[in-house]
Amino acid sequence: MKKIRYYRLLVLLFVTAMIASGCQSESSSGEGDGSVEFDFWAAPNPSQQVFWEDMAKQYMKENENVKINVSPMPESPSSEAGIQSAIAAGNAPAISENISRGFAAQLAGSSAIVPMEEFEGYDELIQERKMEETIASWKFADDHQYVLPIYSNAMLFAWRTDILKELGFEEPPKTYAEVLAVGEKLKEQYPKKFLWSRADLVKPTWWARWFDFFMLYNGASEGNNFVEGNEFVANKEAGVQTLQLLKDLSEKDLLLTREATDPFETGQSIMMDIGPWTFSYWAEKFPEMKLGETYDLTMPPVPEGVDYENTKTFADTKGLSIYASASKEQQQAAFDFVKWVYSNPEHDLEWLKQTNLPPARDDLSTNETFTGYLDEHPELQEYANNIPNAVPPIDSEVTVEVQEVIGTEAVNPVVKGEKDPEQAWSDMTDAINKVLK
Amino acid sequence: MERSNARLGWLFASPYLIYSLIFFLFPLLWATYLAFTNWNLIAPDYEFVGIQNFIQAFFSESVRAAFFVTYKFLAMFVPIVVGGSLLLAVIINSLPKFKGLFSVAFFLPYLASGVASAIVVNGVLSYNSPFNIWLRDSFGLDIDWLGSSVLAPLIIALMMAWKFAGYYALLFVAGLESIPKDVYEAAEIDGAVGWKRFWHVTIPMLYPSFYTVTILAVGLMFGIFTEPYVLTGGGPDLATHTWQLEIYTQAFERLNAGYGTAIAVINSFVTFGSILVFRKILEKWGAKHGW
Known about the structure:
The structure holds two protein chains of two kinds.
Chain A: H1 2-21, E1 36-42, H2 46-62, E2 66-72, H3 79-89, E3 95-99, H4 101-109, H5 122-128, H6 132-136, E4 148-154, E5 156-159, H7 161-167, H8 176-189, E6 194-197, H9 213-220, E7 227-228, E8 231-232, H10 236-251, E9 255-256, E10 269-274, H11 278-285, E11 296-298, E12 313-322, H12 328-342, H13 345-355, H14 368-376, H15 378-385, E13 390-391, H16 399-415, H17 421-436
Parallel strand pairs in A: 1-2, 1-3, 6-9, 6-10, 12-13
Antiparallel strand pairs in A: 3-12, 4-12, 5-10, 5-11, 7-8
Helix pairs in contact in A: 2-13, 9-10, 10-16, 10-17, 16-17
Chain B: H1 2-34, H2 52-58, H3 61-93, H4 99-111, H5 114-124, H6 130-139, H7 151-177, H8 181-189, H9 194-205, H10 207-220, H11 226-231, H12 243-253, H13 257-288
């Protein structure tokens, strides 16, 4: 009697296991009749989703044998985690956007994504989209291109020109010495104001380093790489100069390292790291912020002796990757769709209008398709001009650890006054080399 | 008859049993297995690494921080939330009207999104918030609320207490309402009124609710994620770095899923052990007083 009960329980367990394993969905492939169906994951951002849905609809009209299922990627607890979980569960799409270079390095390291240059029509796509220069810096350490950049925000600094004028400066500073001179004058006239308000300077948050350390370091080093594959190749002089600037600003009480609400907009600080996503927020909440009147946009300041005209900055940029778990047909179909989208600059213009994110093209500031729109939105012009001067994130599988170390060993202690720049750089170098081993 | 009853019992229990098997038992076994591997969540291949992950966790500064930070939160949160919810329950219970309305009102923070409330707190404590400007202008006090390793955990504990006090108060209100009136009448005849009545009658009679709330509050401290993630990122200097933050960082940011799972397994043992200890303490305390 008891045996029968146990057998029943075993059967129940078996059935449950079958149900559980059957829960995994499969990305549908071709039907064997030349048709192909694939999933496209858009970034969890309504405007981007609308754009891709529209593109997919147009493409499917022209290519009736292709079916594209566009959906937003899961973003709990983050879009990266959503993608990882999907890969682990065997539910990854054929293609997705929202892939940063660092995350792509992690995915590529596990053979989860495939090299783009191996697809038929890749060179043609790069030429058609006029992105030879922009994509050059995207090449990974193993000489492959795992991501096709969609947009590139050349991160800039905004300066409160109205306050600068009050202080007697006609234009924003270009060099570290000029920055410190502005700071000195600011404290003389407004002791309660700060030059730069950035709470992340004392936090180890890994991605925060893109918008402080890397903006300044890329400028100081003229775009010298930081890590290549498993090798630390940073320019020490530029790195120490960057940290010295942070130390000087901190010692002169020019940094506000506490959480603050809209400090730049309220005039509590006069410099701000800024991306184009800020402008829609300003239009809604701070209409008084006018380019050329209240603020100006500039590339990062540089140490003396560095050519400011050709200065570099950090590129906040993301792109498309094609997943290894998809079938060959799905991968090629996904690539063909992307090639079709980017073969027409009008599509990039549509993207720019819908998202405010500058398409990753070398000719954004010169191509007539975009010049009209950029004339109407001059705040985006500086971003467009500097796309070729923006350096994407490092392509290492240990990007997170490396950038955490930059915070914990260098940026955070220097700003807190716990280390001098030379010592901080040396400690950071040792720690990064350990991480890269 | 007995057999058909048993069948019926199994039938009714089966949805929960199947649910538990799919969403609890299998993941638990799978996670335990993963804890002994170096899988990164996405690679097709991984290796069995024995207890290496556990050894690494044992010597990890951030895991150690998570261990001690949890008890620090516990020491702050449990007294505040238990005391606060009890006070709230007594006040609600003594209301002549609208008990239900107030119970629901105090319960609302529990339903609020942790992210949303953390953002609000962040705004209130920001450098240029009206509150901080008033402190600076009136008293010359410039307090870095979230930058202090003493204040940051306290703020998170207070925030959690605000969120859960209404929920726990409901449990206390249920307990208060279940105390028979004749017990109070008997106590009154014996001369126990006011505070005396509260300490010697209400509190002992509330022991089951007190026990439940305390154990729930202790268990909660091992699962904190949203508030420190949004407010402090685990800082300053790991002062608010919790188990869940460590697991998330390792598994999803650094792609060390095997190692992250090992930490999760350690976390589950620590949680289980801690709750067991607290239960024993409460049971002994209750038995000592004859509750």
